Amino acid sequence: MSQFQLVSTRLTLFAAFLAAWAILPKVGILDPRLLPPLGDVLAMLGKQIVRAQVQEAIGVTALEVVVAFLIAVPLGTVIGVAAAESDYFGQIFKPMLFYVFSVPKSIFLPMFILTFGIGFPQKVAYAAFSTIFIVIMSASAAVESVKADHVLVARSCGATRSQILTRIYVPSMMPVLLETLRISMIFNFTGVMIAEMYASRTGIGHLISNWGENYQMPELFSGIVLLSAVAISFNEAVRLLEGRVSRWRT
Amino acid sequence: MRLPSPATVRWGLLVLLLVLWEGLPQTGLVPELFLPSLSKTLVALWAQREEYFDALLVTLSEVGIAMLIACGAGILTGALVGGIVTLRKLMLPVFSSLYAVPIVILYPIFTAWFGIGSESKIAFAGIYGFFPVMLSTAAGIRTIDPQYILAARSMGATLPQQIARVIIPASIPTVLTGLRLGGALTIIGVVVSEMLTSSAGIGYLVSRYRTILDSAHVFAAILMILLLSILFDLLARAVERRTLVWQTAGRQSRPGAAGSSPAVPAPAPV
Amino acid sequence: MSAIEVDRLSHVYSGAEGGVPALQDISLSVEPGKFVVIVGPSGCGKTSLLMMLAGLRHQSSGTILCDGRPITAPDPSRVGVVFQEASLFPWLTSLDNTEFPLALRGTPRAERRRRAEEMLNLVGLKGFGARYPHELSGGMKQRVSIARGLVQDPPVLLMDEPFAALDEQTRMTMGHELLRIWSKTRKTVVFITHSLTEAVYLADEVLVMSPRPGRIIDRITIDLPRPRTYEMMATDTFGKLRERIWQQIRKPE
Question: What is the pLDDT of residue B264?
């Protein structure tokens, strides 16, 4: 199949999915109380998005996501690079990180609540905590993707330490780093969502959790559609960028 | 001066961690509410051992059913997606786009649909575990060296023979990795959903004791979940090692693998 | 004055049980414009020696002079280096790879473009400047490496088994091409190889190294006329020279 056919088939399938969602509950084949038709959900989304309460919740969530990201990514990168660059440090911490990594982070959520309460700091702390391990692992992998041969060549050309950093390390690591950025954003976003759904007074996660408990299905689905659209858009945007900077990869 | 060996430092750190867990709350440096000491946690666990044991049984039964669903559906779908070129080209990009969506936001739908009993946990955790199993199975089948199939065909193997004698054995390593990741995720999925809304299971105990600020019992439950997931991981790795004695390290670093997407998908965020 | 002057160079690797002697008492001098090939068994320290000539590694004792001044750090204006395969930066085009040493020096963009294009022309890659390494064949990649080694116009070019990863046919062609480039630029070349045929075909002088610790155990002047041709490989003289080197290498200690 050609690229065009693939894309058009994918779009057709997607359209069929949307059509089924719009029609089946409407004509009563599926229970509209359990699955509100697409039209109702989108109408509800339009109604919700202009409500002050919802806008405030979105603002809070966005701020939590951004702050947690700005803490976890730089910190995790520094630790990851240190673990990859220093043999001794790496030998101590890498096997530990491996274990820590396979442990579910969400069970520590109650500790964050006991320590920070259920406000903004707790969301940020938990999201940063749930993100930092993947950043550390990916940053180490990024450093390890730098070839010793390339550093040697650069030195033979008389490169200084800072030139080796900017001209060899940065371009070698860039594709992996962007992937790290993308995946850590997924972790970060999930972290904020879990924290908000678990215990919170505001935020979009808190809203959908409430809507679910109160059987407000159109509201619930509109929230899920919104969150999915945002998450997918960000992910695809970074993937596009990844494709750009890794054009040299075979 | 010689530095101590990394392994020694690691064990040292673990011991230090346990000592701090016991010592910091005892000396009052950290309030007992934030961190109850190790001994208090163990005492709390022992005092309510029947309650914890019952909760463990609920959680384990949910995990068991969810794993069956996740692994069965995951291997089946993965085999189809990995084996049929058109389907793979059509669907794999879609799955990697969907990966960006936090699955946890779907949980309120499940509680609305299935109630707050075991069914919603099983549905949620089943989906949580399904994706890694499916993606690794697809990757396992896709990354089989075409030389193997070519060789088998040259020896006159029929399609069923190729599947039974080449494709299945050659894809087992990646599939097992997927089962380990997927299994771990079903455990997490069950616990998380129990923590969010439920009336039974270990995750429920975590949440119930948290709302009454009984830290020792919260930590006892956390400790149990930690042990459960570490035990599962050790068990799954042991199975992988036993099954894969023939596999050499070289397989992971085949030429041409660099730069392409990893054979095993990234773990899910939880 | 010699282009390269090595005086009583020795090197010991520090290891767990004391040091491992790698190079022992090496002295050599290379006249400007000469093509010198170093051969020796694997692990004899050929590459270590080359690294030291390039200023990439420090010797334990002894001195290296290039153009009369000691080499203590990499200096691409005096010494260009061509490594084995896979030393091009995959994220840069051929042109960007070639001008890399100039970019490090902060040479103006127009100037380094001009130099790099000149070098790509010299190595026979006119019009390939925009290609990425993965779009080039093995032979073409090594041509780019040579262009990069020559771009600062250093008097000395060091080559560490540059054609080892190529197939036999490409390897022969590249040897021939190298001689063409060398005769145009008249650089001093120090070339490391495992291939005795390649050594005799290229060299003015072949230096034979012993197994570890590496010492120079023979110097063989190759007095075949230049330009060298493929036909010479079939001659008696060529065979005898190669045989003499082989006898030195296989000689039991």
Answer: 42
A93: domain CATH number is 1.10.3720.10
For residues C129 and C40, membership in a common domain is answered with no
Count the domains in chain C.
Answer: 2
pTM above 0.90, yes or no: no
Q: What is the ipTM of this complex?
A: 0.86
Query: Which tokens sit at B231?
Result: 């035990």
Show the domain range for A241.
39-245
Is residue A9 located within the same domain as residue A82? Answer: no
Strand order in the sheet with C69-70: C18-30, C4-15, C61-66, C69-70
Q: What is the pLDDT of residue C86?
A: 61
Q: What is the mean pLDDT of chain A?
A: 88
C206 near C37, Cβ under 8 Å? yes
Write out the two tokens for C16. Answer: 């767990």
Probe site for chain A from C77, C79, C85, C91 (most A CB atoms < 10 A): C91
Residue-wise DSSP of C32-46: TT-EEEEE--TTSSH
At C168, which helix (H) or strand (E)? helix C168-185
Nearest to A158 among C75, C91, C133 (CB): C75
User: What is the distance in angstroms between the Cα of B225 and the nearest Cα belonging to chain A?
Assistant: 8
Task: Yes or no: say if C149 and C101 are a contact pair by the CB < 8 Å rule.
Answer: no
Per-residue model confidence as pLDDT tens digits over B51-88: 889 999 999 999 999 999 998 999 889 888 888 888 88
What's domain B48-245's superfamily in CATH? MetI-like (1.10.3720.10)
Query: Is A1–B89 a contact, with Cβ atoms under 8 angstroms apart?
Result: yes
**Are residues C139 and C98 part of one domain?**
yes
Same domain, A174 and A90: yes
Same domain, A62 and A147: yes
B112/A contact by beta carbon, under 8 A:
yes
Q: Does residue C213 sit within a domain?
A: yes
The 10s digit of each residue's pLDDT in A229-240 is 999 999 999 888
Verify whether the Cβ–Cβ distance B104 to A197 is below 8 Å. yes
Average pLDDT over residues B203-211: 88
